Here is the input.
Amino acid sequence: TLSSISGKLFGLPISFAVAVAILKTGKFESILALLGVAITSLLIALTIYDQKKVLKSIMNSIDALFSHTKAQRSGELAELISKHKEKLYSQARGLDAAMVFLLIISALPFMISLGVYMFKFHPSVISYFNCFIDVFMTQLFK
Here is the structure.
């Protein structure tokens, strides 16, 4: 399943470069770049989420396919089936963890670009946010 989204994942490094481009462009161009990064991040995240659903369906199919091994059977064949089922589950859990990581990474270009945009064009928002964090931290450690 990761091979089907690998081409789309190559767009992530380019999306990170948009944050640098925002620093060098005017406000209108920066808004367009930010909108483009938002759309790209959303499409990549939706693609990864769709693949997570496919993986969940595959895991359910593994359950259905090997449901007869849940019965108490002994023998080498039942042991071999159980061993292969556990290997399939292990691979599926690894893929699921990789997809969660990629979902998080897919949101980073937008968050970084938004931060750069706010820093360049709306620095007062950054100072308000900084004051909010200061008040929160002082209240937290009181």
In short: The chain has five helices and no strands. The two ends are 49 Å apart (CA to CA). Residues 76-121 form the longest helix (46 residues).
